[in-house]
Design goal:
single chain; 286 residues; alpha/beta; 6-stranded parallel β-sheet; 9 helices; 12 strands; 33% helix; binds NADPH dihydro-nicotinamide-adenine-dinucleotide phosphate
Length: 286
């Protein structure tokens, strides 16, 4: 039998990643002959180890914190959405053995919002909290949906203003600090800060939340994050964790690699369940 094609997720640290589980389920569902493993790479070894992985016949990599910007120069080709984001979360080897860099984070978020959560983004008022890598990755795809307003706020307002300068040509964008949040409820508030990872809630005015507001935390965990708890306590119509974004961005990467888009609903149900069946993932050779 043909050797399975090899894929991995690279990060530092990377032990926490659900990607092997998700791609394992995708491979089983679509009958693709592949393995997918975790590859911890320290920043100073990034270029050498990525080069070795592909020289050794590897077909593709997912890229997570802290490598999303640093891998970009290793790619001869980049998709338009990776160019706009200024970051790469997926690498795919091309027929000429060069690397293509893509960014599926923004598409993953928008697919989750539109298809899984059935939200209407056109003409909506959106508040985006944070100005780090995750915020940068979703700005272009969110603006493509033609919201009435996309308001980016960050603890360090200069970082939000830098994003405004870079992305304002793409749509109706505003930027500032947390103090600039409007006191009228937004339709959608997306938490793209790392505050949930520290058990904290970004300091936004409660008046930004109303019954029509969906609060979406990009962070995912088996229990409600501090932001999701805060949203429920302040009367948000809906409060969601970032599992759907995680699974949809993975499905976009899988499509790029294998030419087939898996059905994400059973995978989403599995990662959300309290105890995912981890043996679903094919094991990479040691
Ligand atoms: P970065 O480190 O690039 O950016 C962190 C951001 O969070 C900055 O804007 C920073 O503000 C802000 N921040 C950190 N701590 C706090 C705090 N206590 N209060 C308010 N703001 C804070 O991280 P990423 O952008 O890569 O990731 C952000 C989040 O998105 C993480 O929770 C990550 O897990 C999640 N994520 C989820 C994905 C998914 O598929 N669901 C995909 C990618 C990311 P400042 O600039 O002022 O320091």
């Amino acid at each position: 039998m043909r050797q399975p094609d090899r894929y991995a997720v690279i990060g530092y640290p990377v032990k926490h990643s659900f990607s092997p589980f998700i791609h394992g389920m995708f491979a089983k569902q679509t009958k693709q002959n592949l393995t997918y493993r975790l590859l911890e790479i320290a920043p100073e070894q990034l270029a050498d180890q990525v080069t070795d992985f592909f020289a050794d016949g590897g077909k593709g990599l997912n890229v997570t914190i802290p490598h999303k910007q640093a891998v970009s120069p290793l790619c001869k080709y980049r998709t338009p959405r990776a160019e706009i984001a200024g970051a790469v979360n997926t690498l795919a080897v091309q027929p000429d053995d060069e690397l293509l860099g893509d960014n599926t984070d923004g598409a993953g978020l928008v697919l989750d919002l539109l298809n899984n959560l059935k939200l209407k983004l056109r003409e909506s008022r959106i508040l985006l909290l944070g100005a780090g890598g995750a915020a940068r990755g979703v700005l272009g795809p969110l603006l493509e949906q033609s919201p009435a307003l996309l308001h980016v706020v960050n603890r360090d307002a200069t970082r939000a203003n830098a994003l405004l300068a870079e992305f304002r040509r793409l749509g109706e964008l505003r930027a500032g600090g947390f103090g600039d949040v409007q006191s009228e409820p937004y339709d959608l508030i997306i938490n793209a800060t790392a505050a949930s990872l520290q058990g904290e809630v970004p300091p936004i005015a409660a008046a930004a939340v109303g019954r029509q507001t969906t609060c979406y935390d990009m962070a995912y965990s088996k229990e409600d994050t501090a932001f999701v708890k805060w949203a429920k306590e302040h009367g948000a119509g809906q409060a969601e964790l970032g599992w759907g974004m995680l699974v949809e961005q993975a499905a976009e990467a899988f499509l790029l690699w294998r030419g087939v888009r898996p059905d994400t609903s059973p995978v989403l149900a599995a990662v959300r369940s309290p105890t995912p069946v981890l043996q679903e993932a094919p094991q990479a050779p040691k």
